Task: structure prediction
Amino acid sequence: MLHDFQSQDEVAIITHSLGSYMTYDTLLKMSRGERIMGERDYSAGLVEEVIGHTNYVFMLANQLPLLELSEVTNPLSLKKSSAAALRAIGQIR
Result:
């Protein structure tokens, strides 16, 4: 997708089940320039541009709120961490 992306493109992402969580996690890591699985070099700025052109994210059988519980180490901090991924993507957007 990064290879073929043009600045005039609009992006829609469709996820299913665990893919919702994986998509947000991957986009956040890539926007920071982190390597995920030994992929080719890419520009974190280009990833941010793709995120900025993403108008729709369709989550089918979304489990993102449930799966965020896997990252909670302190139940008292649950309120702060439940929307962290969405907020971070929103800030990039």
Observations:
- The two ends are 18 Å apart (CA to CA).
- The first strand starts at residue 11 and ends at 16.
